[in-house]
Amino acid sequence: MLSIKNLHATVEGEDILRGINLDIGPGEVHAIMGPNGSGKSTLGHVLTGREGYEVTAGEVTFMGQDLLALAPEERALAGLLLAFQYPVEIPGVSNMEFLKTAVDGMRKYRKLEAMDSVSFMKLAREVCKRVDLDQNFLKRGVNEGFSGGEKKRNELMQMMLLEPHLAILDETDSGLDIDALQVVAAGINSMRDGKRSFVLITHYQRLLNFIEPDHVHVLGGGRIVRSGDKSLALELEDKGYGWLESEAV
Amino acid sequence: MSEQIDDLIKSHYAAGFVTDIESDTLPPGLNEDVIRFISAKKNEPEWMLEWRLKAYHAWLEMVEPHWAHVSYPDIDFNAMSYFSAPKRDEDRPQSLDEVDPKLRETYDKLGIPLHEQEMLAGVAVDAVFDSVSVGTTFRKKLYEAGVIFCSISEALQDYPELVREHLGTVVPQKDNYYAALNSAVFSDGSFVYIPKGVKCPMELSTYFRINEAKTGQFERTLIVADEGSEVSYLEGCTAPMRDENQLHAAVVELVALDNAKIKYSTVQNWYPGDEEGKGGIYNFVTKRGLAHTNAHISWTQVETGSAITMKYPSCILKGDNSIGEFYSVALSSNFQQADTGTKMIHLGKNTRSTIISKGIAAGHGSNTYRGLVRMNPGATGARNYTRCDSLLIGDQCGAHTFPYIESKNPTAIIEHEASTSTVSDEQLFLCLQRGISEEKAVSMIVNGFCKEVFRELPMEFAVEAGKLLEVSLEGAVG
Ligand SMILES: Nc1ncnc2c1ncn2[C@@H]1O[C@H](COP(=O)(O)OP(=O)(O)OP(=O)(O)O)[C@@H](O)[C@H]1O
Ligand SMILES: [Mg+2]
Q: What's the CA gap between A248 and B81, in Å, rounded?
């Protein structure tokens, strides 16, 4: 699905990613943990082609394509989705219109028949229900005035509608109340079909109680300093990152 | 982001073509003889000629205004021609079938609904090609409703007293420099009269198009809504691409008598000049409405064209309880300069006005809102609400807001809100990451920004305005 080899990237001239190697197979769930500022979000942004993040070395293949050669929107259409750690507001553009525009584009790319407004509305309402958001959120501006947790659920909704091949969820569990965490976890689990892959960026082992990862990686100083199975997450919960960082040096 | 945007700021002006029709153009220059020529050519009554000459002499005494937030070289008024009509004006076409096919083609390219099917959509079009009206559709049906909708030259022949009664009552000849010039040399324009208690059965529409190079366009529009009547009027404008700048100095007068309602919408797409700021239309227009008791005048404008726009559609709320509204979207991209806004003059008791202005600046565009709200001593209980929002796309454009408030009545309430926002990289990236192109994203954001104004446009034109904005932003952004 995704293969990252020796990926180096800079932001504003600073080396942030310093040689990431990661292979993600179809249907796999990878958790990425690591201290604040270790480069987790940066990895997500680099993979999705955000401007200002410069790749200085390395290769990334996504479903057989050279990912880094694609424009940001092409990467999205190819099936790579990033759920943002800090979703941005777009006042004045209704959520419904935004979602419909995105889905229309995606269906066109996938050579699926266009959806009429009525069926789309129906679908959007169902998805709203799945993430436990009131339907009014479809009428409001994109993330406009949404609470932290509502924004996260809105990200999830976009994932459900766009059905990516690989979803990178950047701290989608942060700022959620306990019930919401379960809703989000159930939402993610419902999207697992043996083919779709996930990268869960998280600080909390809690999420991994609900979604069982195949691999857990710890990012430190722009590198993966440790990989393991789900027990690694438990160990981290116990000991923190200190012991790994000293190891990494 | 700005690099991509710069790339995308390459205007392809869809309406930029020149129709090759032999035209009957007066040599450049302005003097009394020119005015006599125009008046004679149009077989005008004597009083009309006197009226024009009076305006001309007033104009000679006036100086060109330079107070707006725009800059351009001085205009040489003797270098342009003041009359240009398509040939064969002796036997002007009696029906659309007789209209020169080339002309029809021009209209087709502009997407003007002159065809039968489009007429069925309920739009009657008075098409102004350069200076003379060439075809007025649906006049008969309107006539049955008692509505008069024709060119102002025809009105001067057929209803001279109606014209005489109202012409210049809202915008007097000496009102301002360009209005005086217009009064002296106006070539044609539209005339609308809605009789008492009649609700006009369809949207009325005029398309202006400046075709002849080096001709000034001096349209004169007069709309009179008699007591208790209602009309919605749409004006659309386009001009072909040319290197030299062209002047457009129109005058629009609206008279809403007691309990009448006039809705005047403009979708304006003059050629804005190229990416380097060369060419384009100078659009200096005087638009004003006079509202009598309980009358309602509403201006809606979508401005995407013009090199330079100075335009302040205004309402004089003379009658008690009269209402004035101004909804505006103004887009300036490339090197466009727009200085636009409105004036709401509250004279009567309990008069109300609403101003919603949405300014969008992209590229090197400069967008200025200039608005005046005046509460006269008699305006007891009057209210105004103003909101000016600016949206900046890229970091080389500018938006300015100059609200002027004069209140001479302590019971009057004036509210003013303003905001400036930018299309951020984060917003664009969210869209890109969902597979939405930058072009589409910007147009979606801009459309969202303008929603409140588009809502005010007649249905079919709201769609057009959205598209127009998209096309213009193709030049501006995407
Ligand atoms: N635009 C930027 N300009 C300068 N530095 C940046 C920029 N974006 C990221 N960085 C720096 O890159 C480093 C990695 O940031 P990143 O957001 O990837 O961390 P993270 O692992 O996601 O942290 P958190 O757990 O707090 O979300 C940080 O030191 C951050 O300050
Ligand atoms: Mg982060």
A: 81
Find chain B residues with C-beta within 8 A of A90's C-beta: 427, 430-431, 445, 448
CB contact under 8 A, A51 and B425: yes
Scan for tokens 């929603």, then name that residue: B451
Amino acid of residue A144: E
End-to-end Cα distance, chain A: 31
CA distances from A242 to A53, A248, A249, B294, B474 (A): 28, 10, 11, 76, 53
Q: Which chain A positions have a beta carbon within 8 Å of B431's beta carbon?
A: 90, 98, 102
The closest of B133, B6, B90 to B476, measured between CA atoms, is B6
Three-state secondary-structure class, residue B55: helix
pLDDT, one tens digit for every residue, chain B (478 residues): 344 434 433 334 444 444 444 456 667 778 898 899 889 888 999 999 999 999 999 999 998 776 666 666 677 777 777 766 544 444 444 455 555 555 455 445 445 544 433 332 334 555 554 444 444 446 667 778 999 988 888 899 999 999 999 999 999 999 999 899 999 999 878 899 999 999 998 878 765 444 444 445 788 999 999 999 999 998 865 444 444 456 778 899 999 999 999 999 887 665 555 555 555 557 778 999 999 999 999 999 888 755 677 788 999 999 999 999 999 988 877 666 777 889 999 999 999 999 999 998 887 778 888 899 999 999 999 999 999 999 998 778 888 888 899 999 999 999 999 998 888 889 999 999 999 998 889 889 988 898 888 888 776 667 667 766 766 666 444 3
Q: Is any ligand 1 atom within 6 A of the Cβ of residue A154?
A: no
Residue B85 CB neighbours (<10 A): 22
Number of Cβ within 10 Å of residue B16's Cβ equals 16
ipTM > 0.90, yes or no: yes
- For residue B61, give Cα distances in angstroms to B56, B77, B176, B183: 9, 14, 11, 14
Cα radius of gyration (chain B) = 21
The span from the CA of B248 to the CA of B254, in Å, is 19
Binding site membership of A16 for ligand 1 (Cβ less than 6 Å): yes
Closest CA to A184 of A108, A83, A87, A89: A83
Strand B261-269 versus strand B245-248 pairing type: unpaired
